[in-house]
Amino acid sequence: MKLALVAVYLLSVFHIHFRGRVRLPFMRQLFDHSSFMAPINWFMHTFSRVPSKPYLPLDQFKELEPLAANWQVIRAEAEALRNMQKIKAAEQNDDAGFNSFFKNGWKRFYLKWYDASHPSAEQLCPQTYALLKNIPSVKAAMFAELPPGGKLNPHRDPFAGSLRYHLGLATPNDDRCFIDVDGERHSWRDGQGVMFDETYIHWAINGSDSDRIILFCDVERPMRFGWAQAINRFLGRTMMTAASSPNETGDQTGLVSKLFKISFYMGQYRRRFKAWNKTVYKITKFGLIIALAAAIIFL
Questions:
Q1: Rounded Cα distance, 245 and 267, in Å
Q2: Among candidate residues 134, 104, 137, the one with its CA nearest the CA of residue 222
Q3: How does pLDDT run across 13-39, given as a tens digit for each residue?
Q4: What DSSP string runs through the chain?
Q5: Domain range holding 113?
Q6: Cβ distance 297 to 2 under 8 Å?
Q7: Separation of alpha carbons 259 and 121, rounded Å
Q8: What angle do CA 209, 215, 219 make, to 5 degrees?
Q9: Residue 227's CB: how many other CB atoms inside 10 A?
Q10: Residues 221, 100: Cα–Cα separation, whole Å
Q11: Strand bridging mode 162-170 / 193-196
Q12: How many domains does the chain have?
């Protein structure tokens, strides 16, 4: 039984790794966070109602049209937040989902995050908040800022239960500021949206001289069967809500982000160990991984 479970897990990792044209090095993929979610994501991809391709046509998501129609209203609230310096990195290392992005200049302000509560969004962005509240398929949303020179390294998002929608708000309108999804580039433009599958390898860079602010949304992946949609909705409601992170005091911090805050400080000792001797660090790391795998299989 255990061997069968290990086999299913490895097959699902292979599915994730070979999906698309662009891939991570296999050893990195094997221990990447997207691999830990691989069996769930295999299920999502198998029963998805949308095709397996990096970019998807927006005409399949009519419910998002009010966002594009009101992009100038949304932009005004985003620019007001930026002027108040409310679009920012997590101040307490309590953002499990996006912590690695902050070191390269990326910033965010949460407008919605699954079933978590963000009173600051309703207070500071009432019009955008109201628009999003009326679109149930948008499970998460934020203003995302990428300054000149900012970048996001190649990665896959860990959960395939959603698709990613970007709406350009205040962008450089410049091809040097772009996102690359599975080798295909999209340059943001004010008032224009794009939908893509974030479980393909993607990365972004702002090589222009101007700031970039977008509306960033997670849209529930449409599934082929009602029971599969219900499973997707349940997983999003439970797992993803637990990863919520606050904008301000009074916003909800999920359990995963609370635990991440603790692990972040524990990781400082790991980073010191790595800096002391990379070879010993790698031997120790792989030894622990092999020991854990052996324990799972044979115990």
A1: 19
A2: 137
A3: 889 999 999 998 887 887 788 888 999
A4: -HHHHHHHHHHHHHHHHHSSS----HHHHHTSHHHHTHHHHHHHHHTBSS-SSSEE-GGG-GGGHHHHHTHHHHHHHHHHHHHTT-SB--SSS--TTTGGGGGGT-EEEEEEETT---HHHHHH-HHHHHHHHT-TTEEEEEEEEE-TT-EEEEE--S-TTEEEEEEEEE----TTEEEEETTEEEE--TT-EEEE-TTS-EEEEE-SSS-EEEEEEEEEPPBSSHHHHHHHHHHIIIIIGGG---SSBTB---HHHHHHHHHHHHHHHHHHHHHH-HHHHHHHHHHHHHHHHHHHHH-
A5: 1-299
A6: yes
A7: 24
A8: 140
A9: 10
A10: 25
A11: antiparallel
A12: 1
Give the tokens for residue 57: 């046509």
AA identity, residue 152: L
Query: What is the value of pTM for the model shown?
Result: 0.89
Token readout for 223 is: 């599934």
| Amino acid in position 171 | T
Distance separating alpha carbons of residues 47 and 50, to the nearest angstrom: 9
CATH assignment at residue 192: 2.60.120.330
33: closest CA among 154, 158, 152?
Answer: 158
Higher pLDDT, 180 or 5: 180
Q: Where residue 3 falls among pLDDT bands split at 50, 70, 90?
A: confident
